[in-house]
Amino acid sequence: MIIAPEAVEPPRRPAPVTAPAAPGRPPGLLVVAAGVAAAAAAIPLVYLVVRATGGGFEAMLDVLARPRVLEYAANSLGLAAAVTLSALVLGTGTAVVLSRLRVPFPRAWLLVSSLPLAVPSYLAGYGWLVTLPAINGFVPSWILLMAVTVPYVTLPVAAALRGASGDLEGVARTLGRGPVRAFLVATWPQVRPAAIAGSLLVALYSLSDFGLVAMMRFPTLTWGINQAYAASFDRAQAAVLALLLVVLALLVVVGERSARGQLPRQAARAVAPRTIRRGMLVALLPVVAAAPAVGVAVPLLGLLARLLEAQTLRELDVARLLGAVGATVGVAVGAALLAVLLALPVAALASRYRGRLVSALESVSYLGHALPGIVVGLSLVFFALAVVPVLYQSVVVLVFAYAVLFAPKAISTMRAGLGDVPPRLVAVARTLGDSPLRAWWRVTVPLALPSVGIGALLVAIATMKELPATLLLRPTGVSTLATELWNRTVIVEYGAAAPYAAMLVLLAAVPAVILSGVRTVAKEEL
């Protein structure tokens, strides 16, 4: 039973114990726990720097000056730039159509526009290769990456448009500006931070992608890292390339912060969706459907066609499929639990306290958000071999890699949930004689539990879809659905890959459906 604060506070006398306030000093135990989590998140990057610089700067420069390396870097940057710009334009256009125009079944269209988030890039590539086996190179990589990343822009821009004031746009229209010009002058500055933040996710996704570009035989840095690691005599090159990829990702993050800017919040007047001619509406809806069609519909139709072939059904190895399902579920559950344990102290600290130490610990804990999976996997390979060789190629290292990569997803949702717990309720529990830990357990945990569950589900979904780190770190003889799909696609056994692809889609859909029922905003984190 929770007693209202007014019922227990003595009049004209402050409560003897208060909940921690933002300017207060955080408990030492909480700081230590958050420090351990931050240190765990920093292991891949720190060890990668040590490994890459171990041969000296001259050796690093020698690797970076190789023509092939320059080609990898140019391809990565060119692909990321093309995907980011096209996703920004298409995602913003889609958000405007769904938010500012009167379309039939707007909620259904918004759901359709977010579907590509549930499809890994390599699964989209597999679906297209089944249909058109000869496609390869830059253009298919660009189009498919754009299709699966457009929702990263559409969802935040649509949310920003719902809260953006329409007064200035109305004034611009009365002054003779056309719809597009009025939007760019009056509304775009208000939604620019959301659009640029979504573009950051697109750019980082494009830089870190490995499965799709490898399937399309388009050599980027991630492809070069995998090739250099596979050549055991040149693993120093793999470390240098991985460090170069991290530097590019950090430059993207810095550029995003400077480009996003800040806009003071203003009182917003809701803008009613405009009714347009049916002909124009019919012309605009294909823009909304373009990314779901390319990134979801065609791949799933190709998958279904292969899955229903008689030869595929005859050659299906049920025992191997069930083993891959068990391994996928097992590592997903383990990663979700470990990620929540690492994220909890950081989220609790950041939700209640401020200061340079708190900001530093939180920023370091978010490192996994900027580190590509192949970089984390490679650095943990080096770390395990040098520091804990007994754990090399063990499930422990694999689950730890997932936790480092995806703990930021849990931190962001858990921080919001913990921050929503009223401090006065904790103060009331303290006045009733509870210790700080018991008060936190009785009051904060039950109220924040939904956000903890959402964070765990987000980690589980991301773990099921992760490919490059799994390829580098999985124990010998253990295969997940993603690695089974990859291994068969590489040797052009598309029919044999179909059952694993279908099961991956079904498994990832389970937590996604749970999320959509728990909290609509959680879909934006997928």
From TrEMBL:
<keyword id="KW-1003">Cell membrane</keyword>
<dbReference type="InterPro" id="IPR000515">
    <property type="entry name" value="MetI-like"/>
</dbReference>
<comment type="similarity">
    <text>Belongs to the binding-protein-dependent transport system permease family.</text>
</comment>
<keyword id="KW-0813">Transport</keyword>
<dbReference type="GO" id="GO:0005886">
    <property type="term" value="C:plasma membrane"/>
</dbReference>
<feature type="transmembrane region" description="Helical">
    <location>
        <begin position="141"/>
        <end position="161"/>
    </location>
</feature>
<feature type="domain" description="ABC transmembrane type-1">
    <location>
        <begin position="325"/>
        <end position="515"/>
    </location>
</feature>
<feature type="transmembrane region" description="Helical">
    <location>
        <begin position="109"/>
        <end position="129"/>
    </location>
</feature>
<feature type="transmembrane region" description="Helical">
    <location>
        <begin position="321"/>
        <end position="344"/>
    </location>
</feature>
<feature type="transmembrane region" description="Helical">
    <location>
        <begin position="194"/>
        <end position="218"/>
    </location>
</feature>
<keyword id="KW-0997">Cell inner membrane</keyword>
<feature type="transmembrane region" description="Helical">
    <location>
        <begin position="439"/>
        <end position="464"/>
    </location>
</feature>
<keyword id="KW-0812">Transmembrane</keyword>
<feature type="region of interest" description="Disordered">
    <location>
        <begin position="1"/>
        <end position="20"/>
    </location>
</feature>
<feature type="transmembrane region" description="Helical">
    <location>
        <begin position="497"/>
        <end position="518"/>
    </location>
</feature>
<feature type="transmembrane region" description="Helical">
    <location>
        <begin position="390"/>
        <end position="407"/>
    </location>
</feature>
<dbReference type="Pfam" id="PF00528">
    <property type="entry name" value="BPD_transp_1"/>
</dbReference>
<keyword id="KW-1133">Transmembrane helix</keyword>
<feature type="transmembrane region" description="Helical">
    <location>
        <begin position="364"/>
        <end position="384"/>
    </location>
</feature>
<dbReference type="InterPro" id="IPR035906">
    <property type="entry name" value="MetI-like_sf"/>
</dbReference>
<feature type="domain" description="ABC transmembrane type-1">
    <location>
        <begin position="73"/>
        <end position="254"/>
    </location>
</feature>
<feature type="transmembrane region" description="Helical">
    <location>
        <begin position="238"/>
        <end position="259"/>
    </location>
</feature>
<feature type="transmembrane region" description="Helical">
    <location>
        <begin position="72"/>
        <end position="97"/>
    </location>
</feature>
<protein>
    <submittedName>
        <fullName>Iron ABC transporter permease</fullName>
    </submittedName>
</protein>
<keyword id="KW-0472">Membrane</keyword>
<feature type="transmembrane region" description="Helical">
    <location>
        <begin position="280"/>
        <end position="301"/>
    </location>
</feature>
<dbReference type="GO" id="GO:0055085">
    <property type="term" value="P:transmembrane transport"/>
</dbReference>
<feature type="transmembrane region" description="Helical">
    <location>
        <begin position="29"/>
        <end position="52"/>
    </location>
</feature>
